[in-house]
Amino acid sequence: MIQRLFAGPRAQLTEFLAGLSPRERSMLYGAVGVTAVLIAWLGVYEPMTNTLAQLDQQIVGARRDAASVNALAERYRTLQREVSDLEGGGSAAGAGASLFSQLESTTVPLVGRDRIVSMNPSSRAVGDRFEEDLVDMRLEGVPLRQVIELLYTIEYKDPPMRLSRASFKREYKDPSLIDATLVVARLSPK
């Protein structure tokens, strides 16, 4: 059946080619060959290579996005741990101790009660879930070595206190002594 279907056009093509000279037939075969190559190139190869190049670019972009998502997820987990540690409060050594009493118990043995001019506690809300406790402490006539010991103790005390602000001034009468104003802070859950 298929042979009968193509028998008529095949006979016409054979008759047409027989009517051409060998030179014309070669030119016709060359044109058909070039046309077939162009169709294969423009219709198959080039679209396929363009699609593969786009897929490669999408893969590179997806890998970059996955890396940034992983970095953000790790950052989220780190922040979540820090928040849960803060919400856990001071369940360590200083549980229940106010920042004021903790700072006083740290400062008095190092510099003495007579050198503490003032200690003013305050607190402020930080967002919806946290509160920052502050103590503004003024010291007068403290040797430099004791100030450094106090700063070290404040920074590495458990639970930690944070030095929020500090200002130092040498005394006029005795330059070996320092007047200091320290603002110590601690973040705690409401």
Describe what this molecule looks like in 3D.
The chain is built from four helices and four strands, in the order H-H-H-E-E-H-E-E. The protein has 190 residues and is an alpha+beta fold. It folds into two domains: 65 residues; 91 residues, 2-Layer Sandwich (Alpha-Beta Plaits), CATH 3.30.70.60. A four-stranded antiparallel beta sheet has the order 1-2-4-3. A hairpin with a 6-residue loop joins strand 3 and strand 4. The longest helix has 66 residues. The chain is rod-shaped, with a radius of gyration of 42 Å.
Record keyword descriptors for this entry.
190 residues; alpha+beta; Alpha-Beta Plaits; 2 domains; 4-stranded antiparallel β-sheet; 4 helices; 57% helix; 25% strand; rod-shaped
SSE layout:
Layout: H1 2-18, H2 22-87, H3 99-111, E1 116-126, E2 130-143, H4 144-156, E3 162-170, E4 177-189
Antiparallel strand pairs: 1-2, 2-4, 3-4
Helix pairs in contact: 3-4
CATH superfamily of the largest domain: Ribosomal protein S6/Translation elongation factor EF1B
Tell me the total number of β-strands: 4
Please identify the structural class as seen in this structure.
alpha+beta
CATH class category label of the largest domain: Alpha Beta
Number of helices in the DSSP assignment: 4
By CATH, the topology of the largest domain is Alpha-Beta Plaits
The radius of gyration computed from the alpha-carbon positions, rounded to a whole number of angstroms, is: 42 Å
Distance between the termini: 90 Å
Q: Could you name the ranges where pLDDT drops below 50 across 5 or more consecutive residues?
A: 90-95
